[in-house]
Amino acid sequence: MLRHHRDRLYEAAKDLGWAEACNILEGRRGLDRLKVVLQDNLPNMLDGSQHLYPQKLRVLVNSHGHFSVTSTPLPPLALSSLPSSHFPAVLSQLPPAIDYPNPEMGWRIFLSPVPVSPSLFTRHKTTERSIYDEARLFLPESQANVNHPSQLLDEVLILNHDDEVMEGSITTPYFWRGGRWVTPAASSGGNLGTTRRYALDAGLCIEKTIMKDSIADGEAIWLSNGARGWGWGKIMIQNTHVPGT
User: Fold this and answer.
1) What is the pTM of this model?
2) What is the pLDDT of residues 89-111, one digit of tens each?
3) Dihedral, CA atoms, 111, 114, 120, 122, nearest 10 degrees?
4) Which of 118, 83, 88 is nearest to 181 (CA)?
5) Which of 87, 39, 85, 29 is nearest to 59 (CA)?
6) Where are the beta strands (DSSP E) in 48-205?
7) How big is the chain by its Cα radius of gyration, in Å?
């Protein structure tokens, strides 16, 4: 997975025109350099009681190729609530019939009613997160805070002005289409996340344009997130919250 993280950083730096950062990140030397950065920072991040809990690492690189690494504990989440593995060998299972609420089910999935214009900030993961924070305001009001333990398993899908699914606010979605799993096409403007890269590289799915009108209320789909792995979710078209109502 580290290779996918490095590729993601490199492609963002390239599209932003950051020549120094690209030089630091490219090729085998760039991957080795990222490994060293993580190894040098891990001891400081695992002092005290932090090593008792799973940690999410955040790696930033600036235009000069300088790295910063921080860690935060992952919010409590029972693994039994996610009927998935972190890096599955196959995604060949047919979508299950889901009767929500269900203790075996992970995610409730809503559609954002406000379209987004693709940009560098949607195609790449950056510190500019306002688009995603605003999209999560359309979750049921008590579920908008992504860091609250009871609110980890609600997701909102972001669409562009052509009604194409771009991505989720914190996940990559996978839809069952034509007898196989597909993830939204890069041309729709969404983030090319690390778990998406892994799934495509491993042949778990293909990419394809996913139109809003092809999504059914109650449809079961896969979602993936680099820190939380893969899990099933249920589309809930009729329950999107409108802020202020």
Assistant:
1) 0.81
2) 566 566 655 554 444 457 889 99
3) -20
4) 88
5) 39
6) 55-61, 67-73, 107-111, 154-159, 165-168, 172-177, 180-184
7) 18
